[in-house]
Write a structure and sequence with these properties.
Helix content is 78%, strand content 0%. The chain has twelve helices and no strands. The mean pLDDT is 91.
Amino acid sequence: MFSLEMLLPYDFSPLTVIVFVTVLGLYVTGLRLMPSEDRPGALRIFTFLLGLGICYAVMQTVFDYYSQYMFFVHRGQHLILHHLGPFLMALANPLPVIRFWNRQIPQRVRPFLTPFGLVYRALQQPFIAAFLFVGLIYFWLWPSIHFDAMLSRDLYWIMNWSMLLDGMLFWWLIFDPRSPARSDAVGYGKRMLMLALVALPQMFLGAWIVFNRGMVYDVYEVCGRAWPMAPETDQLIGGVITWVPPAMMSIIAILIILRRAMHEDSKMTGKRDWKPQEAHQ
């Protein structure tokens, strides 16, 4: 039965609370101070807040407890941190709010931000972004590394934060609202290719976990499971979560990017058809 205690942190992290509250505060304040014509619509605002909220929920509620003692819940936690939450926030296009706050940064502070900008641009290279996106999943699911991460509080938090930050970088690259024709944004074809390429290794890893006859992640046997579930069932469900939902999200993202590309192409075609007529008149 649901109770308010389930919303309280299992392992309270002041840094996590501060970061999420700061992001929420900056977003809401930016919306209030922005000119009305620049503000995103209600659906986009809701989508961003939903993505932010579910990421917070899996890190600072009782969900985090179950993710430490059930493998399939842990895979659900990383599905949200690395895929669904960043997917929703990037899809909501917070670029107007980001640009608003960027204009508020004093000129004397900007030189100190240059190194961060260089790192960001390096990580947003398509090959690097795709490699990190898949590589981090494999890294933290390597049995010996996963064993240590689930038994070390510091490693556990590093694991979760790395998944969230990497997810934000990847999905922002995919859903960058800028037009590739008028900016240095990655082309739509490259984005769709990236989505297809990152889906395949995830499907392979999920299938390997599902069809593995032995216990791959025995750390949950050492710590004990939160529910009386057979270890094989826990691992099976966790493998399915690693396998199916990420692949489905890649397909959905490809369809979204394809729609954007077709929409932009139709606009460009319309302009080309209209200009000669205008000149003739």
